[in-house]
Design brief:
CATH class of chain A: Alpha Beta
Oligomer: homodimer
CATH topology of chain A: Mth169, Chain: A
Distance between the termini of chain A: 7 Å
Helix content of chain A: 25-40%
Strand order of the largest sheet of chain A: 2-1-3
Number of helices of chain A: 2
Number of strands of chain A: 3
Largest sheet of chain A: 3 strands, antiparallel
Order of helices and strands of chain A: EHEHE
CATH architecture of chain A: 2-Layer Sandwich
Radius of gyration of chain A: 16 Å
Number of domains of chain A: 1
Chain lengths: 81, 81
């Protein structure tokens, strides 16, 4: 059993409307020191395999095909266990 | 300027319908080895301060008040720079 963590973030230069909205909300709540805020996704997966190389290949495929929209998002992942 | 990373995850025991849906989609795409998948949020903030203790206090407040719903979500954060 391997545990994988996948981070999907919006590419630099692409507008993040959710982040802008949350930053605006924080400002209006008095947190003026927030200069920028970007929101991404964080996924924890358990994989029923012990083959690290195979798991890595699968995760890359999952990210490319479903988990991230590679036109506007970047992804990175960590494998443990 | 400090950089903070905030992770918001759904509490253990609370149903994650988004994770269940994505796991189902991965299964139907042939990724049968995915045993579980949980989705959380990942936020990168720039804070216009150099006072680590103050920044930490602010981030905790932001999480409690806006960024996480502490009834069903956990949060953790890292500060750097």
């Amino acid at each position: 059993m391997l545990k994988a963590t996948v981070y999907v973030t919006i590419k630099q230069g692409v507008l993040d409307p959710q982040g802008v909205a949350v930053q605006g909300a924080l400002h209006s709540m008095g947190f003026q020191e927030v200069e920028s805020l970007r929101i991404g996704k964080y996924m924890e997966l358990s994989l029923n395999t012990d083959d690290r190389a195979e798991a890595e290949r699968q995760i890359k495929q999952m990210c490319e095909k479903l988990l991230a929209n590679t036109v506007v998002e970047d992804y990175r992942y960590e494998l443990e266990g």
